[in-house]
Specification:
The complex is a heterodimer of chains A (215) and B (344).
Chain A lengths: L1 H23 L3 H21 L3 H25 L4 H5 L2 H23 L1 H4 L16 H11 L2 H22 L11 H5 L24 H8 L1
Chain B lengths: L1 H6 L2 H34 L15 H11 L10 H17 L18 H22 L3 H32 L4 H6 L14 H14 L11 H4 L9 H26 L9 H4 L9 H21 L5 H28 L3 H4 L2
Helix pairs in contact in B: 2-10, 2-12, 3-10, 4-5, 4-10, 5-6, 6-8, 6-13, 8-10, 8-13, 10-12
The chains are: A mainly alpha (215), B mainly alpha (344).
Chain lengths: 215, 344
């Protein structure tokens, strides 16, 4: 138990430190990378809680896909950090107020009164034979099947809406149709021979004039 | 011998096992680079490297010595910390993935239930090394290479993930050992046959994931010099190289494991039971892996580079629909117990 506790505090400290750095770093790319670190160490915390499926999926989905796209966008943008910080002092009281309310709310729910060991005794550690993924799947597709289905339909609607928003056909947009490209045949599709009369000879320009036009 | 092994502390045992996996792997990486130059050389009617050692067999060692001796140059305006961290971020996942890879029945460092997910998660981390290298170098070519690579990897990861979903539906497990066990029964009961479209998608996505030809726009020499690692010299560059080749070996080994029965013998069990070298064993896995490693080199010598928009089209509009349809087919086949594969 001792080593596990040490690991917990280590990863918890890393998570908190990384989260602090996300909001305090001046460089947005560094901030995103600290967010990645926070995700990875919270995945480690989940694995410590024997939720290895959730931990690995957190890394796979958030770190492996979502944050890569995030980083992609942040690198392309030229974020002016000075402009973002301009109103820091003005908004500080409001920010502190909201932070205070949130802290109190969190304390009311997970404070020692409701969340101590007497309210939630530590569950007995499951054996290594327990298949986490299987257990989670069984629960999700039997007990919680309606919430899962509803959530997935909402996500599908969101995907379709997002794709629809990006589809703005500009008239000057050039694109290729691969089906038509593939259908091209060797003969007349590629080259068209046109019969035409030979060119009329170019009229000779006087040398003096040519010199002037050179200027 | 066994008593001596059991007397060792657990940490030492694990460290020894890690060494036993990584040393042959790094040796294989070194000689894979030589094999690439030789194989492509012969395919193009050249001889390839033949100066160092007998027919050039010491070439990888000469290359390594040269790269170690070279000065590491850090560009003046680069982000120094990230610039130095990027190669480590590229190689660490490429090595850590092997922790769950089973080499034979029960011969695995960490036999975890969610092995396939672990491999998928770690191989999706490899892209950070590339993106950070491109950004931290403070060079336009490097950034362009990093952007291309990130877009490509994210696109093909989805197709690859779906192909693996097909495998896990077919095997009914995320554990790599169990996936191999589900393919028992000879050449035609391996998953390449019932999952043929997924096998194709997986192999091609694997080539794209490792940024290899014909999907190597991330380092298209003719357009952006060398891509994300253009500013790296000496060992920094070598580490990226090591990571790329280790990933290629991983893709080959995983293809052998997930679609070609891993260490299972291609002949029916009744014929080969107990026969030396014909029975199931690590040598079959090695043989299959080497074949797919050769296939990757063959592909590079054969196909010209894809155009960027064609890469994106292939990933998003061709592979993802194919995999989704085939997952449905496999799921139906499993539910209705389609004869040769899921009749039990």
């Amino acid at each position: 138990m001792g080593f596990e506790k040490f690991l917990f505090y280590l990863f918890a400290l890393i998570t908190l430190w990384a989260a602090g750095m996300v909001v305090s770093r001046r460089n947005p790319v560094h901030a995103v990378l600290f967010l990645v670190l926070a995700f990875v160490s919270s995945a480690a915390l989940w694995i410590l809680m024997e939720a290895e499926f959730l931990g690995i999926v957190l890394i796979l989905v958030y770190v492996g896909a979502v944050m890569v796209l995030f980083l992609f966008v942040v690198m392309m943008l030229d974020v002016d950090i000075a402009a973002l910080r301009a109103g820091f002092i003005d908004y500080l009281p409001l920010g502190l107020l909201i932070a205070g309310i949130m802290a109190i709310e969190i304390f009311l729910i997970v404070g020692p009164a409701n969340f101590g060991l007497h309210a939630f005794p530590a569950p007995a550690p499951a054996g290594t034979d327990l298949n986490n993924t299987r257990e989670l799947g069984l629960l999700l597709y039997t007990v919680y099947v309606y919430p899962v289905e509803i959530a997935s339909v909402i996500l599908l609607v969101a995907i379709i809406a997002a794709i629809r928003l990006t589809l703005r056909r500009r008239p000057d947009n050039k694109y290729v149709d691969p089906a038509r490209q593939v259908r091209v045949k060797k003969g007349p599709d590629r080259i068209r021979l046109v019969k035409m009369a030979s060119e009329t000879p170019v009229p000779v320009v006087a040398p003096a004039l040519e010199k002037e036009s050179d200027e | 011998m066994t008593e001596l092994w059991n007397a060792l502390p657990l940490v030492i045992q694990i460290l020894l096992k890690i060494t036993a996996i990584l040393l042959p792997l790094l040796g294989l990486v070194a000689y894979y680079t030589l094999a690439e130059r030789k194989v492509i050389g012969y395919m193009q009617v050249r001889i390839g490297p033949n100066r160092v050692g007998w027919r050039g067999v010491l070439q990888p060692i000469a290359d390594a010595v040269k790269l170690v001796m070279k000065e590491i140059i850090i560009p003046t305006k680069a982000d120094k910390t990230l610039f130095l961290m990027a190669p480590m971020l590229a190689i660490a996942p490429a090595m850590a993935v092997w922790a769950v890879f089973p080499f034979d029945e029960g011969l695995v460092l960490a036999d975890i239930n969610a092995g396939l997910l672990y491999i998928l998660a770690l191989s999706s981390l490899g892209v950070y090394g590339i993106i950070i290298a491109g950004w931290a170098s403070n060079s336009r070519y490097a950034l362009l290479g990093a952007m291309r690579s990130a877009a490509q990897m994210v696109a093909y990861e989805i197709a690859m993930g779906f192909a693996l979903v097909g495998v896990l539906v077919a095997a009914g497990s995320l554990n790599l050992g169990a996936i191999v066990a589900a393919q028992q029964g000879g050449l035609f009961s391996w998953f390449w046959l019932p999952l043929l479209p997924l096998f194709g998608v997986y192999l091609i996505s694997g080539v794209a994931e490792t940024n290899r030809a014909p999907f190597d726009v991330a380092e298209g020499e003719s357009e952006i010099v060398a891509g994300f690692h253009v500013e790296y010299s000496g060992m920094g560059f070598a580490v990226f190289f090591l990571a790329e080749y280790a990933n290629m070996i991983l893709i080959s080994a995983l293809t052998a494991l997930l679609f070609f029965g891993g260490w299972l013998s291609p002949l029916p069990q009744v014929w080969v039971d107990g026969v030396f070298l014909l029975d199931d064993g690590f040598h079959w896995l090695l043989l299959k892996t080497l074949f797919f490693m050769y296939l990757l080199l063959w592909l590079r010598a054969t196909f010209p580079r894809y155009r960027y928009d064609q890469i994106m089209r292939l990933g998003w509009k061709v592979f993802i629909p194919i995999t989704i349809v085939w997952i449905l087919v496999v799921a139906l086949a499993v539910v209705y117990k389609l004869p040769p594969w899921w009749s039990v």
